[in-house]
Every structure is written in C-alpha cells, then in structure tokens.
Amino acid sequence: MQTNRTESFSTADRHEFLNRFHPISQEEFNAIQEKIKSKTLKRNESLIRPGQVQKQLFLIRSGVQMCHYDQHDKKHVIAFTYPPNLCAIPDSFSEQVPSRYGFTSVTASEVDCLSFEDLQLLYAQFPNIETLFRRINEKLLVRLLNLHIEFRSMSIEERFTAFCQRSPHLLQKVPHKYIASYLGIDATNFSKLFNSIRI
Predict the structure, then answer these.
(1) Cα-flanking dihedrals φ and ψ of residue 112, to 5°?
(2) What residue range is the signal peptide (predicted)?
(3) Total structural domains within the chain
(4) Are residue 140 and residue 64 in the same domain, yes or no?
(5) How confident is the model over 24-33, as pLDDT tens digits?
(6) 148 and 95 fall within a common domain
(7) N-term to C-term CA, the chain
(8) CA–CA separation, 30 vs 60, rounded Å?
(9) Which residues of 112-151 are buried (b: 16+ CB within 10 A; e: fewer)?
C-alpha cells in the first residue's frame, strides 16, 4: 500500500498506517517501537548492496528509495519506496540469504530499522504482530501482481499515465532516467511523454 506522501512520517501516523492492514493494540505497537533504531541516509547511499543479506526491515520515515538490479553498469529499477512504506527485499530478508538486488536512497532519507531477530521475537511474543506482517505481505503480493499485469497489458503511454496518477510527486524527486527504467520506457520516449502528456 502506498500514499503520495514523502514528508517526514510520525510515530502516530505509523500506528494508523499499520492498522489499515490489521488492527494492533497500543501495547503491540509500543513493542514494535521499542525494537526500532533510526538511521539517516544521504542521497545515493546504499541500504542494501547486491550480495549482502538484508538483516533489517526498513520502515520509511522520509525520502524516496529504489530497489534495482544492476547489470552491465546499468541500474534496472524494480520499485520505489517512500513514506509510509516498508522497504525490504523479500527473499533476502525472509530467508536471510544474499540479495540479488540493491536498495539505494534516491533522496536524503530517514528510516527506522527493525532487525530480523527482533521481528522473530515479536512474532513469538505477540501473534497479532505476526498476523499484521502476514497481511502486509499479502497486500504487497496483490499489488505486485496488479503491476505485473499493468506492465504487460498497457501501452507505454498508458503505463506513464498510470504512474503519474499513482505517484505524481516522484516526477519532481526522482531522476527521470530511473522512472523510465522502472516503466520499461526508452529515455527518449520518456522525455517525449513527459513533455506531451498532461496529467
């Protein structure tokens, strides 16, 4: 689930956001917050590099980040994250295996970090927290399936328009070459679309 917010995301906002997936009590939310450590990222700083194991789940407080696959000195952008989203490479974090992908801060960012070990402890102590994160994963899978169908069935003009309607703020915050990569559009065609389509 995404919103169009990229400003700083408060603790109270986070509780409200998590409750959209599955209600948790104040005690359960406080237990999550007690395990969290905050981190500030510079522009273009890596959260995860290919080959690293993602040992922490990132809860985005501010800024924009991107997941990418690097090949032949080129970044192929897979996803963007921003508040109030969670940031994870699912197989690396869930299975604690080296990632094939990178996660990089596109802008200066603030993230809260929850370690894999602490999350497992929370699951054991609070079954409702485990239900919460299962529901988040289910919503993510549905969203990824919808995006896959969208990319397969839409023309480049339709993909561009859908992206702009869903995340218009990214056009001002993210270099257009990364958006073009994410949408699977040639940079020249992206420039033409950007200058010709009114959103």
Answers:
(1) -105, 140
(2) none
(3) 2
(4) yes
(5) 999 999 999 9
(6) yes
(7) 22
(8) 17
(9) bbbebebbeebbeebeebbebbeebeeebeeeeeebeeee
CB atoms within 10 A of CB 42: 10
**Domain-located, residue 4:** no
**Reported confidence tier of residue 110, pLDDT bands at 50, 70, 90:** very high
Show the DSSP H helices in the chain as ranges. 11-21, 26-35, 90-95, 116-125, 127-153, 156-166, 170-173, 176-183, 187-196
The answer to whether 103 and 47 have CB atoms below 8 angstroms apart is: yes
- Phi, psi of 188, deg, nearest 5: -65, -45
- 111 and 32 together in one domain: yes
Take residue 59 and report the two structure tokens written for it. 């809860």
Which range (1-5, 50-54, 57-61, 64-68) has the least confidence?
A: 1-5
Q: What is the CATH number of the domain that holds 97?
A: 2.60.120.10
For residues 73-86, one letter each, b for 16 or more C-beta atoms within 10 angstroms of the residue's C-beta and e for the rest, the string is eebebbbbbbbbbb
- What letter represents residue 179's amino acid? I
Contacts with 99 (C-beta within 8 Å, 6 or more apart), sequence order: 48, 49, 50, 51, 52, 53, 54, 89, 91, 92
